[in-house]
Amino acid sequence: MAIKPPLRDLPITTANSGFYEGFNTIVTIGSKLLVGLLIIWAAAFPENAGAALSALNGFLLGSFGTWYIYVMAFYLITCLALAIWPATGRIRLGRDGEEPEFSTFSWFSMMFGAGIGIGMLTYSTGEPIYHFSTNPEVITGQVTAESAEVVRAAFKWSFMHWGLSAWGCYALTGLALAFFSYRRGLPLTIRSGLTPLFGRSLSGPLGHAVDIVAVIATVLGVSVTIGFGVSQFASGFYNITGAGWVMQADGTTPSNAAMIGALVIIMGLSTLSALSGVGKGIKWLSNLNMGLTFFFLAFLLVFGSTAFALKALFVGIGDYLMGLPAMMVTVWHPDGTETGDALAAWQGGWTIFYWAWWIAFAPFVGLFLARISRGRSLREYVMGAMIVPSIMCFIWFAMAGGTAIDLELNGGANRAILDAGLSSQLFATVNQLLSPALAVLMSAMLVVLLLTYLVTSADSAILIINTINAAGDETPKGKVHILVWGVALTLVISVLLLAGGLSAIQTAMIIGALPFSFVLALMGIALIKALIRDGQRAKTGSSRE
User: Fold this and answer.
1) Nearest CA-CA partner of 465 in 11, 19, 30, 7
2) Is the dihedral of CA 312, 224, 114, 72 positive or negative?
3) CA within 20 to 30 Å of 302's CA: 17, 152, 250, 353, which one?
4) SS3 letters for 247-301?
5) What gap in Å lies between CA 478 and CA 484, rounded to an integer?
6) Phi first, then psi: what are they for 249, rounded to 5°?
7) How far apart, in whole angstroms, are the C-alpha atoms of residue 252 and residue 232?
């Protein structure tokens, strides 16, 4: 029995004239209204907004923590299975024989810079150092905090959060979009990934709602990333200049004035870069930040705790891979005991927070990955989008985090790194390795590297938001639309910082991530269904193309 051909036409209404020419007005205006309401609420009632977001954060973590754990496992397993399976791994994300648009180096640079660069700079020292003090093995009494025996656990959990699971979330989004857009000819927008399940109904309100959910998740996910970035940018500025107004009284956290000042500079540069498009500003900035990234890694390799870091890298990868099946499905719930409550609190503050962050970031990174990956095979895409970036993160964490831990264990740092704020710990590590004058120079280089990551992420996000609003049309739109979303992102981050600091931005992101987590799960199911149907068409002699 022949199976009917796949859907190849998904009309999405766009305006023919006026300010919104080329855009779907429902998605564009609906997204702006929701973002605008958030800005007005947080600006007009900052204390109320901060308290409400804090209360909602506890509810979401308690009610949906298990969902986040299991759905991330589903994303990871789906991507790896499709890449490993011979019939699906050979599928080209484009026309048969089509060549990739970008070189492998530029492709990887853009993918890595947009996907995880900022957070990696913040957490490469901060997370291993934190888990050096507390992690599930410490909480359950298996190892002693801040001792040599806890190092393996510190890296195992750091690799868990920045490894295959994170990139699997991104890769699945991009894979579904690239398959349905470049193989089926559907618009390059989120709703296209659901066509095997909902068909032509996605041309209407259901599809509009899906794209609005993706835009809001993107705005809030990018806001968290840029929020961490501007905090570290301000900390780096303080390490270079020593200007007292940059830091709060505790000396570990940047002041709101410093972060908002940095935000305005960064978003201004990002908007200018976005105006130049993917092939110019984003491409060259991505290549620059990859070059600076390798320079700093080379510095750590020469001047850092190389032997300690390399051991942490290889042992950590082994521990991570062996522990991954259990770690990615283990859920801890508060049970009234000190240990049970501590495990649940740790998982909520780290693993579940990360999973929500990656999911919120997935519409942006996934669509961007699809945009730059046309012409590559499914297997090549998954290797490039999951395994290579994971290894890069592991190397970075081992070199930066390993050096920091070794300095605390054996190098006489005397808690200078442990007691520094999260955004300052990388600079505190540099201060331990170099003389004051050289530390200032290295800090300046790191600030430039951070700036390139921030600009790359923000300008890519602006372009992706406009692509979703324009029903998947990648052609450049009016500059005013780029400016509007650049200003909107700046305002969202600013008002949330003033309402409750980085924690308010994190909570808003968790809220935005939740609906998209369901959308992405459905995209995975839809992709599996489409590939199975294509296999059935091949067996019955029906056309897959």
Assistant:
1) 30
2) positive
3) 152
4) ECCCCCCECHHHHHHHHHHHHHHHHHHHHHCHHHHHHHHHHHHHHHHHHHHHHHH
5) 10
6) -60, -30
7) 11
- The CA-atom distances, in angstroms, between 250 and each of 56, 244, 260, 420, 434 are 28, 11, 19, 10, 25
Contact 190, 227 (CB under 8 A): no
Residue with tokens 């308290």: 51
Distance CA 211, CA 197 (A): 16
User: What is the number of other CB atoms lying within 10 angstroms of the CB of residue 373?
Assistant: 28
Tokens representing residue 278 in the block: 């993917």
The token duo for 258 is 């410093």
Residues 234 and 193: their CA atoms lie apart, in Å, by 39
pLDDT (tens digit, 9 = 90+) per residue, 72-108?
999 999 999 999 988 888 888 888 778 888 888 778 7
- How far is it, in rounded angstroms, from Cα 338 to Cα 141? 12
Question: DSSP H helical segments within 348-478, as ranges?
Answer: 353-372, 378-382, 388-409, 425-433, 436-469
- HSE value, Cβ hemisphere, 13 Å, CA-based, for 252: 10
Say how many C-beta atoms besides its own lie within 10 A of residue 183's C-beta. Answer: 21
Burial class of residue 241 (count of CB atoms within 10 Å of its CB; 0-12, 13-18, 19+)? exposed
- Assign residue 107 a region (left: φ > 0; alpha: ψ between -120 and 50; beta: otherwise): alpha
Residue 135, token pair as written in the block: 């992690």
Write out the DSSP string of 315-342: HHHHHHHHHHHHHTT------SSHHHHH
Please state, in angstroms and rounded to a whole number, the distance separating the CA atoms of residues 332 and 311: 30
For the stretch 182-227, pLDDT in tens is 999 999 999 999 999 999 999 999 999 999 999 999 898 888 888 8
| pLDDT average, residue stretch 362-390 | 87
How far is residue 270 from each of residues 53, 115, 163, 225, measured CA to CA in Å? 28, 16, 27, 14
Instruction: Report phi then psi at 113, rounded to 5.
Output: -65, -40
Nearest to 214, CA basis, from 425, 368, 17, 53: 368
Structure tokens at 47: 């204390």
The pairs formed by 245-254 with CB atoms below 8 angstroms and a separation of 24 or more are 250/421, 252/419, 252/420, 252/421, 252/424, 253/421, 253/423, 254/230, 254/423
Return the amino acid letter for 149. E
